[in-house]
Write a structure and sequence with these properties.
single chain, alpha/beta, Nuclear Transport Factor 2, Chain: A, Four Helix Bundle (Hemerythrin (Met), subunit A), Rossmann fold, seven-stranded mixed beta sheet, about 45% helix
């Protein structure tokens, strides 16, 4: 997409005719003495100029330019601008300070200029450029921003109309697809007896006559003889009425392919009986792990996901008339030095399921010896290739064959899923949870400065490979993909970036690719429900919670005792790292007399004793917490609990805070989704959450909760204090926001909806991959080269053995 010619002419004319005004703007930006300016910097600077003296600036082409600009890079002679004119549509422009001549440029030129500014010695004309666009030029792409995240609907519309166009090729592929389904040695759907589409149509008509004459509840067992004689195998349904509906859907597709019929038909096809879920890093377990380094929402997400998926799989298999036990394996790392957790057990049954287990596979050093201790998610890259091979062997032995679907989680799990799905030729789904590049400012540009601690060279390369290798990607929100009208999304930020001295990405991931789908998770309804549901409440835990929250006990895992326990509680629960911004929340609270008067602050986060943490960043945050509490004398108003709470206790704690007419706050600098936000809202707790990331989409501001800007702590504290003041003046206000939160979650964020959608997506992408060219063989070959020549070499440099 290029800048409109009319705008360029208007800009040229303005810069020529109002040279002094333009120079005033450029001079002001240069006066900030920074080579790189973000959107907020530019807008604040421009607003200051307009407030000082508008002189037509606010209505000028420069105002539009600043409104579009996401980033500026400048030196004494040039200003380079990255312009986001619409959601996910980018242009690049440079203006010479002396000539005032605007010039559209390629993304490569913009990135090269950034490299020179960031690293003066980096002027490599032959730097490696990664460009995946040529491999998808002929591929179907979305065009409208509002369609982003609706990939499967788009594919169904585009491909269904072309299914039978290619001289019978579509017929043959559809017939082959119906015959390919098996469970071990049991043939499903169609037998080899039906050899062409004419025979299939004829058999469907005869089967229709048979089923019409049968009672609706007649089971498959009584119909299997005559249906098998026609070429139909089990899998069409468990009773006559369902079998007939499934066959009618197929007849409708054969008559005139329709996206809705295709989706409904594929949802009934017996395709998925086993699922492998990859999550290598952290302490993956079911008890005593939450709050440990690298261990939080992702573990909760996956365990809840597994329970919901198994229920959905069991329901579908029963509807298909099959007697098959679905199998789910969550594959993670085995940690011999397990510190009292179950992370040293090879296999562990997942509570609340019948056929799902955690399968742990160890990391191995170059000599094959097992790595005994936990290591940070930023240090695991050298171990993942061997881990993939070991996982393949263990998984095939566990399942007795290949899984039907592989789901990756986070950067490491997505890379392993990419390698494993390629080796086993299985449909692959990716879930990012959080992409580190957007969490750490300029982490790509100044990657060398962060390399010793974070190894972003490996992580960003792994993300590029996994994103492009996946058959489909699910996200929790639209913002995760494409942001808002004002700011770029997490995936969108991987479209173009540079890592000076390593490579520059000119076309990385395209958010208009139909592989993206929004599938929002929920909170476990057995744990997170409103306080009014007294029959399900764990009232026996209330005494323990009162002691935990309001008691006078302090020690190595608790600091602070509330001197005015009757005040409402302002509650937050998260890992204690910089991005979660718990120390920021404490600072807001400490510096707001109104908020300190209105509520006590309850924190469940990290450790209180820094010696108990293995994570350098967490230890730093612990020390900062103690400094803040000492400096502001908070021990009578802040209760800091450094314990890992089990789910039932955590659920009842949310309700306890709600009983006190309190509120939940999620102050993160950025949050990809925000499971704690959903948990809090599910219990009817009024919730304040960051405006950066998923919570912006989850919460309807002022209706089902409130947005806060973590970069403006005073304003956030004022908003919190105002809420408690409103509740004192009008007690029904708390109930109004609480009811809004409950309604929002019930209407959009449940695990049942999630599981149904994920299973349907898996079938649809698997189908189109089989009957069309969704395989993307050329892209995979390019990614294999990137993996071998870049990622493997980078990972090798991290090995300590």
């Amino acid at each position: 997409m290029t800048l409109p010619q009319r705008f360029l002419r208007e800009l040229e004319e303005y810069l020529r005719d109002h040279r002094n005004q333009a120079h005033r703007v450029w001079h002001h930006l240069h006066g900030m003495e920074r080579n790189f300016l973000l959107r907020s910097d530019l807008q604040d600077a421009f607003a200051d100029l307009v407030a000082e003296s508008d002189q037509g600036l606010s209505a000028s082409p420069i105002a539009r330019l600043i409104g579009w600009c996401q980033e500026a890079a400048l030196n004494d002679a040039w200003i380079y601008l990255a312009l986001r004119t619409r959601v996910a549509r980018w242009n690049y422009l440079r203006i010479h300070v002396d000539t005032m001549a605007p010039e559209p440029i390629d993304v490569s030129v913009f990135l090269h200029f950034k490299e020179q500014l960031a690293d003066g010695c980096c002027d490599d004309e032959w730097a490696l450029e990664i460009d995946l666009e040529p491999f998808s030029r002929e591929f179907y792409k979305l065009h409208e921003a509002h369609s982003i995240g609706k990939g499967v609907e788009f594919l169904n519309r585009r491909l269904s109309s072309r299914l039978f166009e290619d001289l019978g090729k579509g017929d043959r592929r559809l017939l082959q697809f119906l015959r390919v389904h098996r469970w071990r040695r049991q043939q499903l759907m169609l037998s080899e007896q039906i050899t062409d589409m004419h025979e299939l149509r004829h058999a469907l008509r005869l089967a229709g006559d048979l089923l019409e004459a049968s009672a609706a509840q007649t089971p498959w067992s009584e119909l299997s003889g005559p249906l098998r004689a026609l070429g139909f195998e089990p899998g069409w349904g468990n009773r006559a009425s369902r079998i007939r509906q499934t066959m009618q859907l197929l007849q409708n597709i054969l008559e005139a392919p329709d996206p809705e019929n295709i989706e409904q038909f594929l949802a009934r096809v017996p395709m998925i009986f086993s699922v492998a879920i990859l999550s290598p890093h952290g302490w993956f377990g079911q008890a005593d792990v939450l709050g440990r380094p690298d261990t939080g929402g992702q573990v909760v997400y996956i365990l809840d996901q597994v329970r919901a998926l198994e229920k959905e799989m069991l329901s579908r298999i029963a509807d298909q008339g099959l007697e098959i036990e679905p199998q789910i394996r969550v594959i993670t790392r085995l940690i011999p030095e397990a510190e009292g957790t179950s992370c040293d057990q090879r296999s562990e049954a997942i509570a609340g399921t019948h056929h799902a287990r955690i399968l742990r596979v160890p990391f191995r050093d170059g000599d094959g010896s097992v790595l005994p201790h936990w290591i940070s998610r930023f240090d695991i890259w050298p171990y993942l290739e061997r881990f993939t091979v070991d996982c393949e062997r263990e998984l095939l032995a566990e399942l007795g064959g290949r899984p039907d679907l592989i789901i990756g989680n986070y950067s490491d799990g997505n890379l392993v899923a990419s390698l494993l799905s390629r080796r086993l030729r299985v449909t692959q789904c990716n879930i990012a949870h959080a992409l580190e590049k957007t969490k750490y400012l300029y982490s790509d540009l100044y990657w060398r400065a962060n390399e010793a601690q974070y190894h972003f060279s490996c992580q960003f390369t792994a993300d590029l490979i996994a994103m492009n290798a996946a058959d489909f990607i699910i996200t929790s929100t639209y913002q995760e993909i494409a942001g808002t009208a004002e700011s770029a999304g997490q995936y969108e930020a991987h479209g173009a970036f540079t890592m000076p001295g390593l490579y520059r990405v000119v076309h990385g991931i395209d958010v208009f690719d139909p592989k993206f789908n929004i599938v929002s998770p929920g909170a476990d309804p057995e744990v997170y429900f409103p306080p009014s549901d007294t029959e399900r409440r764990h009232l026996h835990l209330l005494d323990e919670i009162e002691r935990l929250v309001l008691g006078g006990e302090t020690g190595e895992d608790i600091r602070g005792a509330l001197t005015e326990p009757d005040k409402p509680l302002l509650f937050s629960m998260a890992r204690l790292d910089r991005i979660k911004n718990i120390t920021g929340l404490v600072r807001w609270y400490a510096e707001s007399p109104e908020l300190r008067t209105s509520a006590n602050l309850l924190l469940v986060s990290g450790h209180v004793d820094p010696s108990r943490s293995d994570d350098a960043e967490e230890r730093e945050q612990i020390e900062l917490m103690h400094q803040l509490m000492d400096h502001h004398q908070l021990d009578g108003q802040v209760r800091w609990i450094g314990r890992h709470l089990e789910k039932d206790l955590a659920g009842e704690l949310y309700r306890f805070v709600a009983d006190q007419r309190g509120a939940f706050v999620q102050p993160a600098l950025f949050e990809a989704f925000g499971l704690t936000v959903i948990e809090a809202m599910s219990t009817g707790l009024p919730t304040f959450a960051t405006c950066f990331g998923g919570p912006m989409e989850i919460i309807e501001n002022g209706v089902s909760g409130f947005h806060i800007d973590p970069n403006h702590g005073t304003a956030a504290a004022d908003k919190l204090a105002d809420f408690f003041a409103c509740c004192r003046e009008a007690p029904n206000y708390w109930v109004q926001i609480s009811n809004g939160a409950l309604h929002r979650v019930e209407s959009r964020y449940t695990w049942a909806r999630y599981a149904e959608r994920l299973m349907t997506l898996s079938r649809i992408y698997g189908f189109w991959k089989y009957v069309t060219d969704l395989e993307r063989a050329e892209t995979h070959r390019y990614l294999e080269m990137l993996y071998s020549l870049q990622f493997r070499q980078l990972a090798k440099t991290l090995r300590k053995d």
